[in-house]
């Protein structure tokens, strides 16, 4: 092969190498471009699920009471209200304030003597003048049986310790709990006369008062959930006092029950129960009838249980 042919072959070989290198570079660039380029994804589809609102368990509630409330003590939420801020006569629901005031001032072990003025109050009464009880025992008997002589004794002893009148002592207890609609003239709640009640308050106030008593004196409150309460005086006299609330056995997880009735007040009822584990609910009925307070209370409890079950009724 002559020199011109070798030169020609060399030129061709160099051209082929250059073309190959160019092809390799181009391929590399293309590969890099493919790797770093974002991959297009199909647009996602958003599926909207329309969840129906929870049924209103209180929508068809009908009660006779002038005022009522269902108060969630765990959250502070009002689940149901009817004239819940109206100030109405409390009757023996006043005894909740009397006992709370006493326990805020006195030790549960404080001896309480039944005074002479306790013997003259209206029934129900159970004690004799001069008998002495521990405050905790007298409070359990008094709340369970709505005993007026017990309430007088507790109010007298607490007012004397504070060096105040009963009215001022009870006003101080109400103020401490920010019960703006509540005041009492006596510790029993008995009507003073045909025009003036012994205690006034709202359903909202009483719900929070009942909750406070359960929180701070659970054992005393628990006594009101049984068919009767037992205790003895320091002299050894034993007492068994029947509960004034006939529906306590129908309310699950009951924590407190208190009844009230006078001519001015009509039928009142305050109960606290657990709707779930450590989830207390207060139900208060004011200004119903003597029997209607229990029907009203049972109606509101049933509606509340339905509310927590997520159904319109049980």
Question: What's the domain count?
Answer: 1
Q: What is the CATH C-level name? A: Alpha Beta
Helix and strand composition category: alpha+beta
Low-pLDDT runs of 5+ residues are 1-14, 29-37
> CATH homologous superfamily - what is it?
DD-peptidase/beta-lactamase superfamily
In CATH terms, what is the architecture?
3-Layer(aba) Sandwich
Biggest sheet details: 5 strands, antiparallel
What's the total count of β strands? Answer: 12
In helices, the fraction of residues equals 25-40%
CATH topology category name: Beta-lactamase
The rough form would be described as elongated
Query: What is the overall pLDDT average?
Result: 89
Instruction: Please work out how many helical segments DSSP would assign.
Output: 8
Measured distance between first and last alpha carbons: 110 Å
Tell me the series of helices and strands, N- to C-terminal: HEEEHEEHHHEEHHEEEEEH
Strand order of the largest sheet: 2-1-12-11-10
Describe this structure in words.
- With 314 residues, the chain is α+β, with helices and mostly antiparallel strands.
- It has one domain: DD-peptidase/beta-lactamase superfamily (Beta-lactamase).
- Helices cover 39% and strands 20% of the residues.
- The chain is elongated.
- The relative contact order is 0.17.
List the helices and strands and how they pair.
Blueprint: H1 3-36, E1 67-72, E2 78-82, E3 88-89, H2 94-105, E4 111-113, E5 132-134, H3 135-145, H4 148-162, H5 166-176, E6 183-184, E7 199-201, H6 203-216, H7 218-223, E8 228-232, E9 238-242, E10 254-262, E11 266-276, E12 279-288, H8 292-309
Antiparallel strand pairs: 1-2, 1-12, 3-7, 4-5, 6-7, 8-9, 10-11, 11-12
